[in-house]
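[job 4471] stage=fold_predict status=RUNNING
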Amino acid sequence: MKKILVLVSFLTIYHSLFAQPKKIIADKIIAQVGDKIILRSEIINAISDYKRQGQDAQLPPNPECSFLEGQLIQKALVLQAEKDSLTVTEEEIDNMLDNQIRQFIQAYGSKEALEEISGRTVYQLKDDFKESFKERKLADQMRAKIVDNIKITPNEVRAYFAKIPTDSLPYYESEVEVSQIVSIPKANKDVEDYVIKQMYDYKRQVESGQKKFEAIAKLVSEDPGSKDNGGQYNLNRNDSKQWDPAFFSAAFKLKEGQISPVIRSKFGFHIIQMVSRSGDDIVIRHILRIPPITEDEIKLSVNKLDSVRAQLVAGVLPFGAAVKKYSDADDKDFTGGRLQARDGSSYLTIDELDKDMVIAIKDMKVGQYSKPQTYEDRGVKKVRVVFLKTRTAAHRESIQEDYNKIAQRALEIKKQETLERWFKEHMPNYYITIDKEFADCSSLGEWWKYASNR
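[job 4471] inference complete, writing structure tokens
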């Protein structure tokens, strides 16, 4: 059951997107938990979606058995959630559905492409997914209720670690914890005025019919994420936190076909064209121009951070206070200047750092601050001071150096064992049936014990 629990949430995400809405002759009920039935098509479609996403290597042996067990787990959790009066609001389901549809639209390029591929409208897709998303949410809530209060003690962590054979301990590459204070040089007013004038000229050319907006975007836009696509983005009103506020607000004020005045964002200057609108979803094109920064502006930022560094080194300014007061980074209030790894932790391997950062910390000692370093971030020139908090050498896992990682693994195992005990205790309370064709599935042994048709 340990590995199968990871399939639970996956199974409920896809009904399948690509399965056509026609009756499948071979479909039938292959299992039931309480009043929750499981169809053959659900298992087949889930496995097909797993393969379609290129995850064939991740499939467990006898995938039909494993995916069926995942669904049995899902249904049992949902039944208990209903019994315990756990609830999911319509708003929560709607938000989950909107997020999923946006992911599909992003993957296939447009709402029209999604509807053509799936053979259903967006509204039909939402209706198809609604019940499975509700079940997923209820199952998640029930699982959380079972394991969220599980804690682990230092003695349990040490006992868990002691049982791991030395030759099975993971090997870690060198890792660092680094933080930064960022200063973004500002272009001088004359340069900004020149760029703004150019942008209004592009707007005039499009509105007069002289040129196509997307053609100008491909030629002059400095947004690498949309330039090759004619500056196009799909936006949803609920995604405001993912976008620059000025850009996002200006985009939603436009009518179809309308082009905005020049908008200043943290990235530079934009003009935005509304392509289409459907409820809270819009398709826009934009052109981004970044006013060039001269050496004079860069020098101002260097001097500013030189002064900040001097205070840090002298110990008269705490690093956190320096970040809050002087850093221009958007996420400084949430991270305190700390860089995060892909998994959200503060420990980064060298390949997770940008090349300029690697150079900056190469000869630094733990606890030191770098001199102001000029670097480029998504086309924008910036200056930063880097603080090296920790550095570990490549090593075999040890309780002294990797306690937090070991504790997290031990905690997850304890939660998993708690879940397994919970299922063994509650299985006798459920009406369970499983089709005879799955009689050879060894992973379903516990479920077969309590199946009424065993």
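[job 4471] summary: The longest helix spans residues 122-147.
[job 4471] exit 0
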